[in-house]
Write a structure and sequence with these properties.
There is one protein chain. This protein is of the alpha+beta class. It has one domain. The protein contains 6 helices and 4 strands, in the order ββααααββαα.
């Protein structure tokens, strides 16, 4: 259902062919010509999950270093993790923002960010002493919300 792609830009692909569904739900979805409304709803759910990860600063994100905090204060900026200029956050929560990746097909949606520095934050960098602060959700984080979205969509289209 959800798989991070191993490439330079942090993105996930929501692929309906990979979703474990019950037979009834599978049959209903298979009978539909256009699943893009469902994929768009799942994309909105993913944007909401990212929004919450940034709001909570993780979980598991290492706090900013004292030197980083001092530099930000000197420049009149805030202390929120991964929100220095807001571009990374915007690229993940608003598909119209600079750096946002939003590729929709009839069976899959790829979303994420192509900002140059995003991968460094997602995976960390020992060379630059930047800790890993994974902002892409893993499957266990999104499964309950995605299941709810799919269930609601199937109920709506099968009426």
């Amino acid at each position: 259902m959800l798989r991070p792609l191993q490439r330079a830009t942090p993105v996930i692909t929501i692929d309906l062919d990979d979703v474990a569904l019950n037979k009834e739900t599978e049959a209903i979805l298979a009978s539909l010509d256009d699943l893009t409304p469902l994929l768009k709803a799942l994309g909105s759910a993913a944007h909401g999950i990212w929004n919450e990860k940034f709001r909570r600063e993780g979980p598991g994100w290492q706090p900013l270093a004292d030197v980083t905090l001092a530099k930000r204060r000197k420049n009149g900026r805030g202390a929120e993790i991964l929100k220095d200029d807001g571009k990374l956050f915007a690229s993940l929560t608003d598909s119209a923002s600079e750096g946002s990746v939003y590729e929709l097909s009839s069976k899959a949606l790829t979303i994420g960010t192509n900002l140059e520095y995003a991968a460094v934050h997602q995976f960390g960098s020992k060379d630059r002493k930047i800790p890993k602060r994974a902002f892409l959700p893993d499957a266990s984080e999104v499964a309950p919300e995605f299941e709810r979205v799919i269930k609601r969509y199937v109920e709506r289209v099968s009426k």
